[in-house]
Amino acid sequence: ADVNPPAEAAGEACFADTYNAVLTGFEQAKGSHRLTARLRRKDTDATVGEGDFSTFVAAPPLRPTTPWDSPQGRFIKLLRDAVVGWLYLDNVNPDDPGLAGPCTTGWNGHTMVGVHKLDWLQAMIEGLVNDQVPGDIVECGAWRGGASIFSKGVVDVLDPTGGRKILVADTFVGFPAADKNDGVDTDGWAYQNFHVGGSDAVVATFKRYGVFDDKVVIAAGLFNETLPILPTEQIALLRMDCDMYRSTIDALSNLYDKVAVGGIVVHNNWQYTSARAAVVDFRRDRGIEHLPLHLVDGNAMAWIKEA
pLDDT tens across 89-99, in order? Predict the structure, then answer.
């Protein structure tokens, strides 16, 4: 992607006129940018994004509002540090793990998203709960389930009577083969070691953390098979950590219409051309390019559904 300053600066508020402007401090974001995703369309020389740019604002880090020194905050922090594997690492800063994670010697966590992304995930859930945005939390692409386990813990503490479900979709046995018709994905993904032992292993991990109940739904299989029948009527937070073009398109095509007004759509891996192309294509095809894309924590994009 090529990032260039716009000819005229757009408004500095990121989620202006929505509840997240207050929640995240996005109204303090300084500067806006234009994003041109120069992605080659299948079988043509055209590139996605040319002449029809999407606006995004580089937002400051999201900050949870639940005090860390409260009983709820202590539980959430302990759960966060456990699922991210930081709790068991020696010689890291106890106040800020920095980049401690999968590449750190001795690391063994249940999510690779890192402490800071779990903080903004918590902040988003806090905002949805405080503003009574209805719906479930769905994660598409879950690996060992750590981010969904964290979401479940946050919901149990902050919204125990809200009836929200946590729905976790993945093959749990690795990536599928690429669809050659998409022209973006490669079979390289299939060689990545993301086999976690199947859905039973993820259920067992939820149980080890003590957060597995009838509000947790594990949907194992390819997205084009599981997402059309996913048992959710309304979604408050759709979080995608699916790296491939086809997987991202399947997630958006099957679930976006269920996202509530005011709900949040997140893609965790904007740095991957394949996933970025899917988001750009979907937003263009659905005529929602006017909804600002918000760059969060370096390589994640989010937007708010307005209608």
Answer: 877 777 776 66
